[in-house]
Amino acid sequence: MLKVGVLGAGHLGKIHLRLLNESEKYELIGFHDPDAINAEKVEAEFGYHYFENINTLIDSVDVVDIVTPTLSHYSCAKKSIEKGKHIFIEKPVTNTLQEAEELLTLTGKYKVKGQVGHVERFNPAFTSVKDAIHNPMFIETHRLAEFNPRGTDVPVVLDLMIHDIDAILSVVDSEVKQINASGVSVISNSPDIANARIEFQNGCVANLTASRISMKNMRKSRFFQKDAYISVDFLEKKVEVVKMKDAPETIGDFDMVLQNAEGVKKQIYFENPEVLSNNAILDELESFAEAINNDTVPIVTLKQGTNALRVALQIIGNFENA
Are residues 102 and 243 in the same domain? Predict the structure, then answer.
């Protein structure tokens, strides 16, 4: 079992602590949080060992799980990497692109692995159809959330939209060509609603919308590709796959057939991939343990987390230049 320590015992940090404590792949050594009052409360309530000194905790583990506010991701990760520790780091990977690129260099220098907590990659709805998404040419995403003061210290792009940015980059095998975006601050000092249009070199276009002041929660993505439409509901964990193939010569009474202007007939059929229930956070943490133990590439690498951050910051840059 890998010895693991958690940095940060806030809302998400406590979830990580509980799951790591239950996992058969890790031995939870303890946690550090700069807020001593909160840390002592967590230790008293759950029994996890609180390390007052961050260096003592890092020295005691093989893996450091960084669930601190984004502003401190870089310093926590740098300290851990330079001590030869593997790092799991929550999204967004860092506060700036330069910090993310420095961490990439450091992991190579110290020969340690890193994974970024883009948890939607482990959503069972997405994993059930990811291999069926081939060369999509139009993508549309909506990620809407009811207002929650937690997280409003960063733009909605880094809070919510970055999940969809990462998912899109994982299925579009092309470089970004151009980005256009707009954002509106309604209740926060940073944008609460944002829309972005990402154009890729291969012609694919992705239209992303995110809001944290919606009347309802929604996390849906739609992928359009040749002869197929794939819908992923990340919130309800449901998928819809509609495909088209050449129509048979003899069309049955219940066959759904479309004919275009050139007279080409296509038959519509539906696929229902099995969506297995899971705990996505536990899966991402344990997948990292497997990557370390088997010396394989993590599912969400630091480079991929850096690429998602790069696009997110380009979108935010559009707001500032508007």
Answer: no
Cβ atoms 103, 93 nearer than 8 A: yes
- Domain tally for the chain? 2
The residue out of 53, 78, 112 marking a domain boundary is 112
In a domain, 281, yes or no: no
Q: Which domain holds residue 178?
A: 121-276+310-321
Phi and psi (nearest 5°) for 261? Answer: -65, -25
pLDDT, one tens digit for every residue, the chain (322 residues): 999 999 999 999 999 999 999 999 999 999 999 999 999 999 999 999 999 999 999 999 999 999 999 999 999 999 999 999 999 999 999 999 999 999 999 999 999 999 999 999 999 999 999 999 999 999 999 999 988 766 556 789 999 999 999 999 999 999 999 999 999 888 877 889 999 999 999 999 999 999 999 989 999 999 999 989 999 999 999 999 988 767 776 776 666 766 677 767 777 778 888 999 999 999 999 999 999 999 999 999 999 999 999 999 999 998 766 5
Would you say residue 196 lies in a domain? yes
* Structural domain contains residue 286: no
